[in-house]
Amino acid sequence: MPELPEVETILTALKPVTIGQRIVRTEVLRQSMVQEPLKIKRLVKNIRVLDLRRHGKYLFINLENNLTLVLHLRMSGRLAVRKISDAEFRHERLRLVLQKNLVLVFNDPRTLGRIFLAPTDSLASHPRLKLLGPDALTVSQRKFIDRLKARKGVLKAVLLNQSFVAGIGNIYADETCFRTRLDPRRKVQTLSKPEREKLHRAAIATLKKGIRNRGTSISDFLGLHGKPGINQNSLSVYGRKGRPCRSCGTILKSTKIQQRTTVWCPECQR
DNA sequence: ACATCGTCCTGCGCGC
DNA sequence: TGCGCGCAGGACGATG
Question: Is the Cβ atom of A56 within 7 Å of strand C at any atom?
């Protein structure tokens, strides 16, 4: 589920709850989602949260002792904060017990989410992170275009590739393509310079709109405090196959690109 | 470097 | 109302 705007929305809500607080202990409820669960339980205990960060769809909980807890929500992961005495959520997989009787809970019905611990000073060289491209929200036009030059293949696939830029998933890839009026099936090597520049601006504008709307809540996503986003109400193409284009009225088409449903306007997008 | 496929899981909505 | 099926916003690894 969560792409960059959803992770950013969670991050914003999570900061005031966690920064400066102590993690009293860690409870691992689903071992398969956690790398080295015993090590995490041993080390993420009575330890202070220094800072929270995000890169692409990854969330980093920067702790004392040169440790960073890395979370990826994948398709169905959610973070929530509750009181210890509150009822459990249905699919709790990891619990970070905080001070003040609060618990930060990683819920994930499909258990595809991933959690691991890495040294803060060498995060960038961690095998799971070292191939990530620059964060899609802040990448400069220069860097974006340089990196695009090195790519082949169809536009949508490149946007989804986290080693190109990090943070764009299926929804925001389709929405970015529509905003640029580019056909998601276009080979990136056929894009003109103005089209490449437009693509960079459109990707950032699409992500920023998602953040302003506190994320897209199609089926899974809720903010930290259980509040849905509103971006789903103003999507141009994602999830609108067979419905009229908001711009020209043409019926939107759908295909699979990299096994991901892709929706676009055959009239507006070329 | 790229494309395709299978895999990890559970829940939901749809058609019958 | 119940059942089976296909689909789901992600990423990785194997294979070609």
Answer: yes
HSE toward the beta carbon, residue A122, CA cutoff 13 A: 5
Which residues, by CB, come closer than 7 Å to strand B?
A 32, 76, 90-91, 109-112, 150-154, 157-158, 161, 219, 257-259
For residue A233, which amino acid is it? N
CATH second-level architecture of A4-125?
A: Alpha-Beta Barrel (3.20)
Q: Report which of residues A239 and A23 the model is more confident about.
A: A23
Decide: A91 and A73 in contact? Cβ < 8 Å: no
Fold designation for A141-234: Helicase, Ruva Protein; domain 3 (1.10.8)
Instruction: Write the pLDDT tens digit of every residue in A156-194.
Output: 999 999 999 999 999 999 999 999 999 999 999 999 999
Catalytic residue among A48, A185, A260, A267: A260
What residue segments make up the domains of chain A, in order of their start? 4-125, 141-234
State pTM to two decimals.
0.96
Which amino acid is it at A93? R
